[in-house]
Amino acid sequence: MGMNKALLVFIVASGFLLFIYANSSVFNRHLVQKDTPEHLAAAAALVHQNLHQHHQHHHPPQQHHDTKRNGTASEDVISSSHGDSLAASKLKRIKYVPKGANDTEYNIFIIYTKESQNLILHSQLELFLRSLLKYSTVELHLHVITDEQSERSAEELIKQQIEKFHRIAFYTLYHVQDCAEKIGDIVHGMMPLFNYRSGSYYSDALFLLSLGLHRIVDRNMRRAILIDCDVVFRASVKELFDQFELFAPDQLFGLAPELTPVYRHVLSRYRMNNPQTVFGSPYYLDKFAESTNSSRGKKAANSVEMRRHGYPGLNSGVVMLHLDRIRRSRLYEEIIKESTVKNMAEKYSFQGHLGDQDFYTLMGFEFPGLIYRLDCIWNRQLCTWWREHGYSDIFDSYFHCEGAVKIYHGNCNTRAPE
């Protein structure tokens, strides 16, 4: 009988403690957070992720994520500094899933490595993120290609700026070594032609990464833009993504013109043997007027300005990638083969030093139908190095860019205006 009473007292006491715990503020707060629309959406994204991973069981995912800090590729939630949970900024680290689960196809790739060896890289990324989020009108998915030494700093900057501007965004981390392994054949074939000095294998791969990005990302990703960290936005990146709608059916990439005479220099031998070529010429050639007179006495067209464009090469500070088309293009697969690239370089007596930019420049001249010509206002480069190195007399004709600038590119460590 004594044992039964003791058991009864234990059961009653346990029930009382459970009742108190269930009504505590901690338990209630957990329920409120779990049931918010934001958390339900995040849960749906993770369920979709798991289903996607299940379907890919026999095909390892093409993306790689940093999982060391949290143990899984789970979400991070950053609360608003004002304490308003409904208006809180949300920053999620998830595997890429198609539109509908992460609700965005605005995929922006950046490369952020070797921070300790580049004293201004941190400030460049901070300014990049600040301007990107300040003008953004859409939810973004940031894809950061990084290394173990730089990833923590990159994450901290992303979190700070997301919270500062109260934005909703996703981000995914990729390890540079994993990315490099997927484009090994491209690196091997192009490195001798487009790299003036050899660093480590992975360093070389970074300069050619955009050429094989379609191999690295999830196959469901249709479009992406790779942007250098040293750019500053003056407009919403949505306007840049809208340029995809202007691509012709066969165009795979979108790049703006190079605004320095670097390729005039690289192509000096070819231009000497082909004086009529526009390869290596300024984008804006001289205006000329064309007047037409009618033999019947009709009023002539007065000074109709016709604009001819040269081909100064392309700049890879902003690269638009139509990923689904790139994957399907047999022509592109042939072009990136070592033999094809070598033939193009020999044809133009071309020995470059700017990685993927050199390749795009050659491909854009040899296969112009594959590249959409992005206006210079979306990659307004600021480097003036060539003005002081032998080209002061013609530099301004290359440096010229017409229109209201949407993106400034502070290459050569030039400070871009905020």
From TrEMBL:
<dbReference type="InterPro" id="IPR042465">
    <property type="entry name" value="XXLT1"/>
</dbReference>
<dbReference type="InterPro" id="IPR029044">
    <property type="entry name" value="Nucleotide-diphossugar_trans"/>
</dbReference>
<protein>
    <recommendedName>
        <fullName>Xyloside xylosyltransferase 1</fullName>
    </recommendedName>
</protein>
<dbReference type="GO" id="GO:0140560">
    <property type="term" value="F:xylosyl alpha-1,3-xylosyltransferase activity"/>
</dbReference>
<feature type="region of interest" description="Disordered">
    <location>
        <begin position="50"/>
        <end position="81"/>
    </location>
</feature>
<dbReference type="GO" id="GO:0005789">
    <property type="term" value="C:endoplasmic reticulum membrane"/>
</dbReference>
<dbReference type="GO" id="GO:0016266">
    <property type="term" value="P:protein O-linked glycosylation via N-acetyl-galactosamine"/>
</dbReference>
<dbReference type="InterPro" id="IPR002495">
    <property type="entry name" value="Glyco_trans_8"/>
</dbReference>
<feature type="compositionally biased region" description="Polar residues">
    <location>
        <begin position="70"/>
        <end position="81"/>
    </location>
</feature>
<dbReference type="Pfam" id="PF01501">
    <property type="entry name" value="Glyco_transf_8"/>
</dbReference>
<feature type="compositionally biased region" description="Basic residues">
    <location>
        <begin position="51"/>
        <end position="62"/>
    </location>
</feature>
